[in-house]
Amino acid sequence: MIFSLDSNVLVDLMRRGRPQVRRHMQEAAAAGAALKVSTVVAHELVLGAHKSGRVQDQLELVGAVLAQMEVEPWSWEDALATGRLRAELEVVGRGVGAYDTMIAGQALARDWVVVTADVAGFARFKGLQIVDWSNPAGVIDVTGAMARLRRPSKD
Questions:
Q1: Is there a contact between 104 and 122 (Cβ–Cβ < 8 Å)?
Q2: What is the C-alpha to C-alpha distance for residues 74 and 71, in angstroms, rounded to an integer?
């Protein structure tokens, strides 16, 4: 299995917030799962570092965390999947942030499971596999719970 880590998961790891996130990550790695980070997520982390009061310290921390994982560049196939996703959602009147759409598109194109605490945000992407490691009770697998795409009613 290949897990694509969202920025909120990596921020949690860097802040040493919820211990269950680190534990689930270690369990996944021990079970042979690959941990990937999209360059889009890397961009979000670098942006956050530049917006912080301690830019250099934060950039070093981001670099140290990303050095432990595989940072994956964006491909043409990722762009194709992302464009399709965004078009589908815009047709039904549901705007979505560009970065989350890119992360979801890359995960769909590569058959990755997105690990995020933003379940509601990613659940709108049809067919996307999602898990949440932030719950202290255990991993929440929301795959299959995706929001259904509906055309807006014409009132």
A1: yes
A2: 10
Q: Which residues contact 25 (CB under 8 A, 6 or more apart)?
A: 5, 9, 13, 35, 133
Residue 154: the pLDDT is 40
Residue 146 binned pLDDT confidence (cut-offs 50, 70, 90)? very low
Query: Tokens in use for 119?
Result: 């379940």
Q: What is the pTM of this model?
A: 0.84
Q: Tokens 């310290």, residue?
A: 57
Q: How close are the terminal C-alpha atoms of the chain, in Å?
A: 45
Tokens at residue 38, please?
Answer: 């999209």
Section 44-63 average pLDDT:
94
How does pLDDT run across 88-102, given as a tens digit for each residue? 888 887 777 899 999
- The encoded tokens of residue 27 equal 């369990």
DSSP string, 76-130: HHHHHHHHHHHHHHHHTT----HHHHHHHHHHHHHTPEEE-S-HHHHTTSTT-EE
